[in-house]
Amino acid sequence: MEESFPMTGGDGPYSYAKNSNRQKEAAESAKAMLVAAITENLEINKHNICPISNSFRIADFGCSTGPNTFIAIDTIIEAVCKTYHESTFVHNPEFHVFFSDHVSNDFNFLFTNLPKDRSYFAAGVPGSFHNKLFPRASLNLAYSSHALQWLSKTPMEVTNPSSPAFNKGKIFYAKAVEQVCEAYKRQHEEDLASFFGARSEELAPGGLVAILMSGREDESSPSQVSLGPLFEPLESTLIEMANEGIISQEKLDSFNLPIFSPSPKEIKKIIQKNGCFEIVRLEVQPRTLHPMITLQQCRAGFENIITKHFDDNNNNNVIIDVTPVLL
Prior knowledge:
The protein is α/β, with parallel strands linked by helices.
């Protein structure tokens, strides 16, 4: 069964809404590329547009709670409108935007904060983006930002003491042995194939898929993942807590973050195997993330997964004790 660990909801000091500047910076650095991809490749004449409503349907997969999803949707709509203006269409379409994330995502907060001056109709679609979520040929543009690095589950081998890929005393595959990295890579290949398989059915003719995700360069091995330095403080803190008896060693050894950063070649291989998509642009952007993660950012992204795993009536200790290292 697929695991679900949403970002921390609401607007508190540890919420994703207040602590997603890293993702915002990365999206802003790729904005020009997103706009160019839409204006240069969107085939309007092929679109399955309803003749009555003249609607253009956009879905953000892994939208979380905002505000970054609203910024991205505005950028997409602006680029689509520009494409319409440069075509034979006289009027812009009506935009229907679907915000999609796991059922446990804080959709109440998301919709409470929808922009009042938005130029689109909004709807929420709960569910995993590894599965089909929309009717066949019903979407014109699928978008996902900083979500596809999340796996549907942690590879079972890395938490199995009898497996050669057992990742004892670690919570991530950075600097891990080859068997651990391969287990993560296989799980990501399976998940990304499921994502593109579902989107291939949902997209209308002439539609686009635009994805922004954490990755690594082709020349690097999985163990040299760029996100490694971000998780080292969390890992060392949990190890220290196990040594002090705050959490058990067994709990630590059975905990690995379900995240993987692929290379462009790995992504291209999965898409080509799917056979339903043409890659029109695939680029690696320079790293914009800072080398350290703060307590607030850690809790915004990982509080739910940490507390769920180490749930033994000491959840507050697990979170509070991470504070000194991550501040």
